What we know:
Layout: H1 3-72, H2 75-94, H3 101-123, E1 126-129, E2 142-148, E3 158-163, E4 165-168, E5 171-174, E6 176-181
Helix pairs in contact: 2-3
Amino acid sequence: MSDAKQDHVAEQEYAEEATTAEVDLTEDLPVDENDALRAENAELKDRLLRTLAESENVRKRAERDRREAEKFGGSRIVRDLLPVYDNLRRALNSASDAAGDADSALLEGVELTLRELLKVMDKHGVTLIAPEVGDAFDPNTHEAMFEAPVPGTKAGDILQVMTEGFMLHDRLIRPAQVGVSSNPG
């Protein structure tokens, strides 16, 4: 063979060996690549589980919010109806016993209207807070409008009831407004 051909063959063999060496190097890459894919897979599984948990939490929160809105959604209309109740109650309280027959029929109508209002409110979970004079003051359901030292009473006794309070299920809509004794004993 000629020297030129031998040189060319030697260059080809060298190139093939270099290519083979590169292939040997790439055989090491799949192991590293496999570890990288496993790590990525673990990260994606973790993210998926976190996303599923967050999705479940959002679903539970939405369900709780829906139940709460269903239960307490009417609180604004109840607040708007309280002055109607108060006015009907005042009309009955101010009526005199000496009213004529025509007036007694009107008072009976007002009383029936007030009872019907209370029945409808009760049907929807609204309960009346009607403390009596002499009951103990409860800051959870009563609002003290004044304090006065009245002989013969204990501190914290209700002296006067100005307005009744109302609760919607277990939520206070309006506290009963009362006067309280501040007598030390």
